[in-house]
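Fig. S4 source data, part A: sequence.
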Amino acid sequence: MKHLIGITCLALMWAACASDDTSENKIIDQRIEVRKVAVITLYQGDIYGLGFSENYSQLITNQLEWLDVAQKLDKVKFLGALDVDFQFFEVLMVTASVYSYQGHSIDVVDIEEFDDYLKVQIDHIMKGNDAPALCQPVHLVKIPKLGKRLVLEEV
């Protein structure tokens, strides 16, 4: 009888371990689902003088925030004329450090959507030149309205 119980326990343990469709595996698979986010550049350039905090990012979700950023960038006519329907879109702004020379950039190269956040990959493709000026690179991109927190990653 003890022999039969032992064999039954071993068979049950083997069956439980052999299954690949456990709920834990399904949860892990759902967490790593990644979707690419369509990105449209609205503005990329420099802020001259003192602009925003260094290495700053902001998700602009309404017209009032958008006009405030346009004013701080001294681009009210240009950015104010761009049509952003904040019912369906939001604007991501990223800035780099303040540099003493022109020719630097900050570039949003990719955005991936996860279940609870957006991973924003940024790069500094242009590394500067010899033209002296106090400037800060900025990149503004329009993305679909997703309402998720941002995680920035340098590539």
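Fig. S4 source data, part B ends here. The chain has a mean pLDDT of 81.
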